[in-house]
């Protein structure tokens, strides 16, 4: 099929590339000229494992193209995907300005039989509003479908190629048939293609993210409780997870969830609820607990150093909001960095992929180390924010030699407290007795 993918960010680029890989002819469009020029030269502007190879392969086979020219991409497309950003407004509602701009740009060039497919996460009613706007802009009915995306950064290719389910919100059999055909290669026999109304599809995306966020805030609150009551959250997680009604996933305690989606989607769903007169008590609590959890390492630092942080040198391992990505949007590490700088600390940071993005934000306010051990040189303590594989099995003796004081604040529970004691570290983690 001929496809236009509007927006070549994390979702658009991954989706477009994977769709090309199953034989479709895909043109990715972006308003960011630099991004498109780099892609045309085979350079992938984001770090996502496996993506660069797949982009280069499909571009070379002539079925993946990049352009800033919306008209060129849309004119021949049977499916026009919208995968532009839907960030948060100040009040928590979703900012749909990128979507509206994209709708205006595609409208004059749509084929009469094209289906516009909304992949961006957008509030209930957006699909209908896009239909209304396209009717006004084109003077005819345009087919608009919702197709929320459930991929995770760091595992995006695999998630796209092997989805647990495909959800589509459609109003016409034509849209359903086209999408069913498009996704047939991805659906193993036991994985469903679920059709529903666009409103239900829009809600499904928010409800999924809100439930996953709820699990994380819940386990973080329980971890904090474990610390006070001298329990161990790892044992508790094992104790509850074997109950198949509960399970193990998304119940890892930490420094709070970050990323471009959970925080904004929980707030946007709360905003939707308020607008229809419902008080979103659960969603507000999930957000509040998460905002609080982003300060958990700072609170432990303050306790360890009796509130005297000024003049300390603190090393940070892990800046991306999760491993296997360079994405730092709403990353808990940024909250910690801001607090440490405000308290008068010197901050030395390392991340395998996100250093460049952090440097663009903080410039010379931080010391950027190209290896984990270099970040420790002369530091009074280490804080771990992201569970990159590189941090899981470090040379503890060398770490002790590099650190000025052998103190670790581990926000991802990477090590065993007993092992750390044996190495002579003062070791703080989440929800476990030191
Ligand atoms: P992103 O910021 O990485 O990418 C969006 C891209 O769209 C940018 O490159 C931007 O330049 C481009 N753009 C904006 N307006 C445009 C226009 N008029 N024409 C062409 N390009 C335009 O965002 P993302 O992370 O890919 O998220 C996109 C959407 O997908 C959001 O609604 C998000 O909630 C949703 N989503 C994201 C993920 C994820 O893991 N990042 C997963 C599922 C769903
Ligand atoms: C999340 C969802 O998992 C995807 O299904 C969804 O498509 C996507 O949001 C989206 O809508 O954008 P993503 O944000 O890429 O994906 O990454 P996750 O693996 O979900 O992690 C999100 C945050 O939660 C990270 O900061 C991570 O460290 C944290 N987390 C996750 C925990 O603290 N504990 C856990 O047990 C799991």
TrEMBL record:
<dbReference type="GO" id="GO:0000271">
    <property type="term" value="P:polysaccharide biosynthetic process"/>
</dbReference>
<dbReference type="GO" id="GO:0006065">
    <property type="term" value="P:UDP-glucuronate biosynthetic process"/>
</dbReference>
<feature type="binding site">
    <location>
        <position position="30"/>
    </location>
    <ligand>
        <name>NAD(+)</name>
    </ligand>
</feature>
<feature type="binding site">
    <location>
        <position position="86"/>
    </location>
    <ligand>
        <name>NAD(+)</name>
    </ligand>
</feature>
<feature type="binding site">
    <location>
        <begin position="250"/>
        <end position="254"/>
    </location>
    <ligand>
        <name>substrate</name>
    </ligand>
</feature>
<feature type="binding site">
    <location>
        <position position="329"/>
    </location>
    <ligand>
        <name>NAD(+)</name>
    </ligand>
</feature>
<feature type="binding site">
    <location>
        <position position="205"/>
    </location>
    <ligand>
        <name>substrate</name>
    </ligand>
</feature>
<dbReference type="InterPro" id="IPR028357">
    <property type="entry name" value="UDPglc_DH_bac"/>
</dbReference>
<dbReference type="InterPro" id="IPR008927">
    <property type="entry name" value="6-PGluconate_DH-like_C_sf"/>
</dbReference>
<dbReference type="Pfam" id="PF03721">
    <property type="entry name" value="UDPG_MGDP_dh_N"/>
</dbReference>
<comment type="pathway">
    <text>Nucleotide-sugar biosynthesis; UDP-alpha-D-glucuronate biosynthesis; UDP-alpha-D-glucuronate from UDP-alpha-D-glucose: step 1/1.</text>
</comment>
<comment type="similarity">
    <text>Belongs to the UDP-glucose/GDP-mannose dehydrogenase family.</text>
</comment>
<dbReference type="GO" id="GO:0051287">
    <property type="term" value="F:NAD binding"/>
</dbReference>
<dbReference type="InterPro" id="IPR036220">
    <property type="entry name" value="UDP-Glc/GDP-Man_DH_C_sf"/>
</dbReference>
<dbReference type="InterPro" id="IPR014026">
    <property type="entry name" value="UDP-Glc/GDP-Man_DH_dimer"/>
</dbReference>
<feature type="active site" description="Nucleophile">
    <location>
        <position position="261"/>
    </location>
</feature>
<feature type="binding site">
    <location>
        <position position="35"/>
    </location>
    <ligand>
        <name>NAD(+)</name>
    </ligand>
</feature>
<feature type="domain" description="UDP-glucose/GDP-mannose dehydrogenase C-terminal">
    <location>
        <begin position="315"/>
        <end position="417"/>
    </location>
</feature>
<keyword id="KW-0560">Oxidoreductase</keyword>
<dbReference type="InterPro" id="IPR017476">
    <property type="entry name" value="UDP-Glc/GDP-Man"/>
</dbReference>
<feature type="binding site">
    <location>
        <position position="153"/>
    </location>
    <ligand>
        <name>NAD(+)</name>
    </ligand>
</feature>
<feature type="binding site">
    <location>
        <position position="264"/>
    </location>
    <ligand>
        <name>NAD(+)</name>
    </ligand>
</feature>
<dbReference type="InterPro" id="IPR001732">
    <property type="entry name" value="UDP-Glc/GDP-Man_DH_N"/>
</dbReference>
<dbReference type="InterPro" id="IPR014027">
    <property type="entry name" value="UDP-Glc/GDP-Man_DH_C"/>
</dbReference>
<dbReference type="InterPro" id="IPR036291">
    <property type="entry name" value="NAD(P)-bd_dom_sf"/>
</dbReference>
<dbReference type="Pfam" id="PF03720">
    <property type="entry name" value="UDPG_MGDP_dh_C"/>
</dbReference>
<feature type="binding site">
    <location>
        <position position="258"/>
    </location>
    <ligand>
        <name>substrate</name>
    </ligand>
</feature>
<protein>
    <recommendedName>
        <fullName>UDP-glucose 6-dehydrogenase</fullName>
        <ecNumber>1.1.1.22</ecNumber>
    </recommendedName>
</protein>
<dbReference type="Pfam" id="PF00984">
    <property type="entry name" value="UDPG_MGDP_dh"/>
</dbReference>
<feature type="binding site">
    <location>
        <position position="322"/>
    </location>
    <ligand>
        <name>substrate</name>
    </ligand>
</feature>
<dbReference type="GO" id="GO:0003979">
    <property type="term" value="F:UDP-glucose 6-dehydrogenase activity"/>
</dbReference>
<keyword id="KW-0520">NAD</keyword>
<feature type="binding site">
    <location>
        <begin position="150"/>
        <end position="153"/>
    </location>
    <ligand>
        <name>substrate</name>
    </ligand>
</feature>
<feature type="binding site">
    <location>
        <position position="121"/>
    </location>
    <ligand>
        <name>NAD(+)</name>
    </ligand>
</feature>
């Amino acid at each position: 099929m001929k496809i236009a993918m509007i927006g070549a960010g994390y979702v658009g680029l991954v989706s477009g590339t994977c769709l090309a890989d199953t034989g479709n002819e895909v043109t990715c469009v972006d308003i960011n000229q630099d991004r498109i020029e780099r892609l045309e030269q085979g350079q992938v502007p984001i770090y996502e494992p496996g993506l660069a190879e797949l982009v280069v392969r499909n571009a070379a086979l002539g079925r993946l193209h990049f352009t800033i020219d919306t008209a060129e991409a849309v004119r021949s497309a049977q499916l026009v995907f919208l995968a532009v950003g839907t960030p948060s407004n100040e009040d928590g509602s979703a900012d749909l300005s990128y979507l509206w701009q994209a709708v205006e740009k595609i409208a004059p060039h749509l084929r009469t039989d094209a289906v516009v497919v909304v992949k961006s996460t957008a509030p209930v009613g957006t699909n209908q509003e896009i239909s209304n706007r396209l009717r006004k802009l084109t003077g005819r009915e345009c087919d608009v479908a919702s197709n929320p995306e459930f991929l995770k950064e760091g595992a995006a290719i695999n998630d796209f190629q092997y989805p647990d389910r495909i959800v589509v919100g459609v109003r016409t059999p034509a849209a359903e048939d086209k999408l069913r055909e498009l996704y047939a290669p991805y659906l193993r026999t036991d994985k469903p293609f679920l059709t529903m109304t666009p409103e239900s599809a829009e809600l499904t995306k928010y409800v999924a993210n809100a439930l996953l966020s709820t699990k994380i805030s819940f386990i973080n609150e329980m971890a904090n409780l474990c610390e006070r009551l001298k329990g161990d959250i790892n044992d508790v997680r094992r104790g509850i997870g074997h109950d198949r009604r509960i399970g193990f996933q998304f119940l890892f305690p930490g420094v709070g969830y970050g990323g471009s989606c959970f925080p904004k989607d929980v707030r946007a769903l709360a905003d939707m609820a308020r607008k229809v007169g419902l008080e979103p008590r659960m969603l507000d609590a999930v957000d509040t607990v998460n905002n609080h959890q982003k300060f958990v390492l700072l609170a432990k630092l303050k306790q360890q150093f009796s509130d005297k942080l000024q003049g300390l040198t603190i090393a940070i391992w892990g800046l991306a909001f999760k491993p296997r990505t360079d994405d730092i949007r709403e990353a808990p590490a940024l909250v910690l960095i801001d607090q440490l700088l405000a308290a008068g600390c010197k901050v030395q940071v390392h991340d395998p992929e996100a250093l460049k993005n952090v440097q663009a934000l903080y410039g010379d306010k931080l010391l950027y180390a190209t290896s984990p051990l270099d970040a420790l040189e002369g530091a009074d303590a280490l804080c771990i924010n992201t569970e990159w594989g590189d941090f899981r099995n470090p040379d503890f003796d060398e770490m002790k030699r590099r650190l000025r004081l052998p103190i670790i604040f581990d926000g991802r529970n990477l090590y065993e407290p007993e092992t750390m004691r044996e190495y002579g570290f003062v070791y703080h983690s989440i929800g476990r007795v030191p």
